[in-house]
UniProtKB/TrEMBL annotation:
Protein's recorded name: Uncharacterized protein
């Protein structure tokens, strides 16, 4: 999936093709652990900073 998010510490925006790996819940907030396919790199993205998170349609 193509994901658009902002970095939690710098505010820099990214748009990459990622493979979601795990949803992580914590007292600080929810995170999506995913793998950036072009760079073979795992990133932990704060859910509130995802700009285009898909939502289910009823």
């Amino acid at each position: 999936m193509r994901l658009h998010w902002a970095d939690e510490s710098t505010g820099i925006h990214y748009m990459e093709v990622v493979m979601p790996l795990e949803w992580q819940e914590s007292p600080e907030g929810d995170y999506l652990l995913c793998k950036v396919l072009a760079e073979n790199l795992e990133v932990r993205v704060r859910v509130e900073l995802i700009q285009n998170l898909p939502a289910p349609v009823k």
